[in-house]
Input
Amino acid sequence: MLVHPNRNPPIMIMRNFIFWLSSKRSITDSLARRGMKNGFARRFVAGETLDEALTASDELCRHGRNVSLNHLGENVSTEAAAREVCASYIEMIEQLHAKSLGGNISIKLTQLGLDINKELCASLALSIAKRAAEIGRTIEMDMEGSGYTDVTLDIFENVQRATGNAGLAVQAYLHRTEKDLLRLAPLKPKIRLVKGAYREPKDIAVQGKPAVDANYKRLTTLLLEGATTGTFFPAIASHDPMMVAHAQSEAARLNLSKDKYELQMIYGIRRDLQQQVHAAGNILQIYVPFGTDWCPYFMRRLSERPANCWFVLRSLLAESGAG
Ligand SMILES: Cc1cc2nc3c(=O)[nH]c(=O)nc-3n(C[C@H](O)[C@H](O)[C@H](O)COP(=O)(O)OP(=O)(O)OC[C@H]3O[C@@H](n4cnc5c(N)ncnc54)[C@H](O)[C@@H]3O)c2cc1C
Output
């Protein structure tokens, strides 16, 4: 289960309550029926179809952002399902290209059959990257729970060696991440630095926001220093104003031009900060999720910030005529 590494007790209670709600089929079914129709899910989810995601992406690109399309859904359990997801990723990158929209796609290896067959998953990931390379596009790989870190690094390395157009998310909360970056450096990759979204034990990940933030800042500096020599293309992916400010001030200290790194944020989150970053002249890429399987993703965004629940309640009340 995805959780956020915040340890504030009232927030944890609210988060656990939302997770409990998300396990109640009657509630998620009702949300799923109303969420898109009523419009509240569209705050964090670009739509259920690729066309809707492309329309949202078009709007973002017209406002100077790049996008990374993400088809919602996680682990698949059959080869046929993995191949279907692979075909849909390829369609996503082709459509993005056909519509001349700036950006790429983000793929999740568990959606490509990582749990059933590593070789199959590796070959599907490679075929997506190859097709993207043929049309001059890039791909990014999400990082999932720590049980998948080693195999994700292996598959990423193979793909990047073969095609040179892949980027990888790494998680600042993992003790191992600095070592992983040193391993990846010879491939000169794009690295998306995130805090990390899974519950991990303390022998694997640092615990608590201050420690995660400290690691995030340290790794940001390491990546930006690497960018001065072309070793990394850092993508600083955070909605935390302190992390964004740290990246901007470190880039200024290193005299790093703004085309040598980028900021990334998620669709619908901290749109005020997105605007500030864009106005400051930074490259900004927005992670744009879409798909019919949006409910669990949507509930996780709610759980990250209880204030997000109010606009859902307001829209449900408005629909029922109560407010
Ligand atoms: C582009 C992108 C890609 C990502 N890819 C991955 C990945 O591949 N693997 C992975 O493990 N994690 C991924 N994540 C998630 C990441 O690990 C964090 O869980 C998530 O970004 C929250 O951390 P934060 O850096 O935004 O800072 P936080 O300290 O969590 O939050 C900082 C501030 O951001 C705002 N904020 C955060 N979340 C919300 C929200 N839901 N609604 C409104 N405001 C909010 C609040 O103002 C909060 O105070 C990704 C994040 C981004 C931005």
